[in-house]
Design brief:
four-stranded mixed beta sheet, six-stranded mixed beta sheet, 274 residues, alpha/beta, 7 helices
């Protein structure tokens, strides 16, 4: 689609000198997801891999469980002032056996970060909707392998090199082999694209895999990893308290502050091979 980056003229001020030059920015545009012709949600994303994003979103929201649950995915409506398709509206038709989804579900419908009562409700929501028992996944991941993941993810972030403005998510084997990496202005979108790739490839549940993300590990990311059956989630920054609670409850190994040769393991320590 050619909209992953956008060029803008900027005034550069450095060491007291001013220059005018073009700069590359990460593209950010709205994507409206429709299911069976009815609007479901709108997310701000970097265009590209939209079908993956939609499949990942629907799986992590409990709407679908496999690629067979979606009959078609097509762009519709959404034209600019010149009548050209903006590719910002994607409609997915569900298979006949899939129960209808409630209209009006928002991107953060199951996400919270403050209220204790709401937090308990969010945990209960994932407990009820999850299909995969992570406690039965006995994968082991070596410390050296974990230490190598941030660098491998960073090397796969091609658009980040030109913009510096995208989050990354990468799916790895327990031996540190990169299966897929995706970038987006939204960390949750990058994860949805990775999980959507797995759905379309028939790889869910993602047993024995490690999800590596840039930035922090939020409740929402732990939720998504849980719904996809991912036993290990690693982040370069901190997890939230509710993310750590959910990871521990679901039997997930949650790693934060994975930088250089150090890390904090918040839950599932037995999977880290020291």
């Amino acid at each position: 689609m050619g909209r992953v980056t956008v060029r803008r003229q900027v005034l550069r001020i450095s060491d007291g000198r001013e220059t005018s030059r073009p700069d590359a920015l990460a593209a950010e545009e709205p994507l409206e997801l429709r299911v069976n012709g009815r609007a479901l949600t709108v997310t701000m994303r970097t265009p590209g891999q939209d079908v993956e994003l939609a499949h990942g979103f629907l799986l992590t929201e409990g709407v679908i469980t496999a690629t067979e649950d979606v009959r078609t995915a097509r762009y519709c409506d959404g034209t600019d002032e010149d009548g050209r398709n903006t590719y910002n509206v994607l409609d997915l038709a569900l298979a006949a056996h899939v129960p209808p989804v409630q209209v009006g579900v928002e991107r953060n419908f199951h996400t919270t970060s403050s209220c204790g009562v709401c937090g308990k409700a969010a945990l209960e929501s994932v407990r009820v909707r999850g299909h995969h028992d992570l406690t039965k996944d006995d994968v082991k991941v070596g410390v050296d392998t974990l230490i190598s993941l941030p660098g491998k993810l960073r090397a796969a972030q091609r658009v980040f090199d030109s913009t510096g403005g995208l989050h990354g998510a990468g799916l790895f084997t327990a031996e540190g082999e990169l299966l897929v990496a995706r970038e987006d202005v939204g960390r949750h979108n990058a994860v949805d694209k990775v999980i959507g790739w797995a759905v379309l490839s028939g790889r869910v549940p993602l047993s024995g895999c490690v999800l590596m993300v840039s930035g922090r590990a939020s409740f929402e990311l732990v939720q998504k990893a849980t719904m996809a059956g991912i036993p290990v989630l690693a982040a370069v920054s901190a997890p939230s308290s509710l993310a750590a609670d959910l990871a521990a409850e679901q039997g997930m190994t949650l790693i934060g502050f994975l930088r250089g040769s150090s890390m904090n393991v918040y839950s599932g320590q037995s999977r880290v091979d020291r």
